[in-house]
Fold each of these.
Amino acid sequence: MAFALVGFVKSGGSGWRVARFVTLFSVLIGLAGTAAAHFNLNVNIRIIHVEERAEDLRVLIRLPMAYLVADKLGPEQADGSRTPAPYTTNVTEDGMLVHYLDADALRRDPGGLAKLIGEGHVIRSGGKALVPQLGRLRAYPALKQVPFATLNEADSALDGEIYPADFEVTYVGDTIIDAEIIYRTPDGLGDYTIGSSLNPGLPGQEDTANLVLVHGAGDPLIFRVRGLLSEPIAVSHSLFDAVLTFVTEGVRHILEGADHVLFVICLVLGARLIKDLLWRITGFTLGHSVTLALGFFGFVPQAAWFVPLVEIGIALSIVYAAIIAIGEKQFKSTILVTTLIGLLHGLGFSFVLREILKLDAPNIWQSLLAFNLGVEIGQVAIALVIWPSLWALARYLPAKVHMVRFGLALPCIGFAAIWIGERTVLFFGAL
């Protein structure tokens, strides 16, 4: 690899996605050459607690520090490097410019960083932007962050020193910021929106996992949105709207996950009759629903090698489904095997969900079931796109249908073979 990513910390999720991210990040550094590209976005989750009170909104937010400073490097200096961004220092390591948190500057004047957070997050009610008032602020190395899943945890996280002396100074990309912001609501509060103007221009920022937890009169509502929050979240106090954000995320996950899409395509290709397709989808659904829950709640091995091992199994399942698809013989055991493969894919889904939703988050089963429903909708959507075309082809051009199955299944095998190689390297590297 042409560029080393110093201080890279894996924050969770599947190993192969991390490897793909590292490769993409390295290429972008080489092509762009901008100072901002040297900032890593190693932790890519933003959590926003909104406590609705009589005269204000109290917002407790956790986000990566790179979001706040990566686009704020100063003018070029005599040595050709740029002036450090606020609350950072520049260091050259192994010939590469990297950025550390300036803990002393943060301790002296935390208000400047808090101001960046307040200005970067906009809450509108009744068409008006609410004025932010800055409260407490703390910073952590990513590996030392404290729980932030509930309102009480978030409140406790903000107590204590801004950056304790016993914390080692770490890379900006590995630094987490917690902040408290008060928004006065003198005219009362109806429905409102939460958005962000922060756009540091970092690779991977469009995949930021945003959780917005709204604490009002009833049970907390959890909204799940991906990206920069440039399009604000509408907080409507509707349980349906909150659940829908997790359904949408489940749909996006399966449609944007190439390995899951290819498996479902091969599953559809191999079903000659509609009843075969329905049984296969049912088996796959039952299988992944079980392990989605088991994996999310941690009833699986936690060793570093387990994630790439599961990913290898998912790639192998594509090869199996593709071979069955192009074969002429239909096996009675296919439904059973599909169910077992569903168990494997469910683990893959659970790894993604655990990145964004903690075990002690409110309404955990509601969010889990909604995500699973989204996965089901996504796979049914794939089937509905492919199956009618195959059915029509088999009915009106039966001589061509095998060639079409072959032409679709072979590329699936090719992609899966590449993934098997990549994930095997990750697996042995984690042992």
Amino acid sequence: MTLRGASRAAAALAGRAFDWLSSAPTRESARVRARLVDTLYERKAFVWFGSVSVLMLAVSAAVLTDEVWPWYWLAADLALLAFRLRVIELCEKAKVAHAPRPVRRLMAAGTAWCLVLGLGSGTCVIAGPPALAMLAGVNVAAVVGAISSRNAATPRYAMLAIACVSLPFAVSTLFSPIPGAFLVGLQFPLHIAGIVVILVRNYESHVRLVRAEMRNRHLARTDALTGLSNRAALTEALAALCAGLSAKGAQRRESFAVLSMDLDGFKAVNDRHGHAVGDALLVRVADRLQRGVRPHDQVFRPGGDEFVVVMPNATPEEADYVARRLIEKLSSPFQIGTEVKASVGVSVGSALAPVDGLTPDALLAHSDHALYVAKRSGKGRYLPYAAAL
């Protein structure tokens, strides 16, 4: 195997290892797992406080021992602090842009920092001054406790970090010149076992909170009647797509279409047969709309008898085809129960980004304008914004 092949194999193996460490030990959905991993970079204050306490410990070691090694420790901690803060910044930007987060690099840097802390604290214990050993023990205990809270959402990775911090310290107490220090090393595994139990409990609490957060978020973004995404979700989806627009992106077919739709004849059905039939009709309309769009398109119900379809990576021709397909699908009568047969139609107006707008408000306003012109010219019509002008 060549050197390049060996490096690729090692990188792939390391990647699988970090994927396993970041995965949840219990069976969770992909969205829950992703949300748990996001917590790794959401508490920047812990990174600052941990590094500041280590810097103070390294300076104390340099003063009490008058040796060179604490300064190397200090330099390593500063370098890791700068790297971790940079990777956290990249993770935050990637989250906003809905891009992959460099979580592997963040986990690798965190593991390295924990290992450096463990080795440095262990050296403090072996160095001899009791005050320095006490400071090292306090720092190790504080960091282990912080890991059990901060990294509880990824317990496998948290256990690795705890091991990197505590094992060098525990082993060093067995070789320390301080009388009775070995007793700390003998009891340390018991304390770590207790921390792991707390870690598992914290993980269970994290999972419950994430599930509740996602459930509430789903309810807040979902239309209760049809099950479609609502106006809040529409605004969020358009904002995400608009954030990814660029001149080069448009050339790479990253443009998208917004179809605004309004039912024709719905008010007459609602007035004649009542709101119960009207609600049932809206549910069936939503079902036909979902079956009439492309697999990666999304249908929204902002309210009333209005619907919006967002079509990522769509050309004008694709928007035209989908709009006319939806008009055709809704032209067939709807059977509501055994007695009511309702007929409605739909008018459609569209706007294409970035040609017709670069913001959610502009795109919705322009597609609504095209819809208004289409309805004014006759029912069951489709009109793009350019033609409406």
Amino acid sequence: MHDTDLAHVGGLSYLNPSAPEPYASFIEQIERVRPYLGELERWIETLKHPKRTLIVDVPIVRDDGTIAHYEGYRVQHNLSRGPGKGGIRFHPAVTLNEVMALAGWMTVKNAAVGLPFGGAKGGIRVDPRAVTKDELHRITRRFTSEIGLIIGPDRDIPAPDVGTNAVTMAVMMDTFSMNRGGTATGVVTGKPVALGGSLGRHEATGRGVFITAREAARHQHIEVEGARVVVQGFGNVGGIAARLFHEAGARVIAAADHGATLHNEAGIDVPAALAHVAENGSLAGFPGATPIDIEDFWQLPCEFLVPAALEGQITEVRAPRVQTRIVVEGANGPTTPAADDILKDRGILVVPDVLANAGGVTVSYFEWVQDFSSFFWTEDEINDRLERIMVNAFGAIWRVSEEKQVSLRTAAFIIACHRVLEARAERGLYP
């Protein structure tokens, strides 16, 4: 591996040089901010090196009596501005590289919207659909015990992500509390409301996607009512965003998830599609639209394209064929840097993940605050506060984008990196 290749992935020996993505994308995004950092540039390497990386073995006794081992991770990318904050992903393709990138994006996301957190992320290499409910319960408990060394309400606060949900968070909270000897509701967010969860948390990420899409449309003089929307991912991000677009009078003409890719130019009945997914686990078999090839999906003419599944979906191969006015990134890292450049050159506005999907962590912040005070807000209060934070963050990022003549992503990174590195510089190095 050449020195230039090492530099491309931050000079980290534990990354695979033959598969540098997605952390290499994160590093490249950081490098694009270098010219705008001024005196803070001397601290830029801080953003390329995760503060703490933990790899754990997660052994359990399966229902048939055999022993199974799963690989788990928790990465704390940066804690300069506060405790770590970021989700837990259960997916068979989870890697250390991916978790590192996701943790880095959480650092940027939290700083970009002004939340008092650093960035962290975790995951287990497991397909939650391939194990029983009891086995998943044991996996979650063992994983929580293993990473309990570095998490806590004032240290690092996990949340749901791909393959996890409120039940996962309840088990994590209970495990941590039992090990500590006292209830610690603030150790995770995204919990059931009965256990200190926040109203509005389940819909928060999708709601934030819609809010930022609406703000982008306003600046681009696009009417949401009557607009065509294409959504990849139909869970609690893409599905909720689709519902809010539908309620605003937009026409969701295509939707895709792990089970099917569907198209209906007249508009998919979103409430019916959501009900179908709730009952069947995916869009497969939904009668209200026609199956199409996934590559055709990316080429559908529309006003809004919402990738809300996994990272690396809009590549330099797909980007030239995308036919949308605005990409709104509901997923983390769905657009590669090379694709980003292609979309920019083609005049397609990209609302970046570190802004578009920040609604989830924003309401997680609300949940954390409510748990500490044991005083809970109404759902209207939650949504009003979310609206205000997202709109203000969008406005600030748009202004920097216009002032510096850079993309919204680079503008968000400029704001975030200034905040993180200023905190790093003010705190100094210890010892």
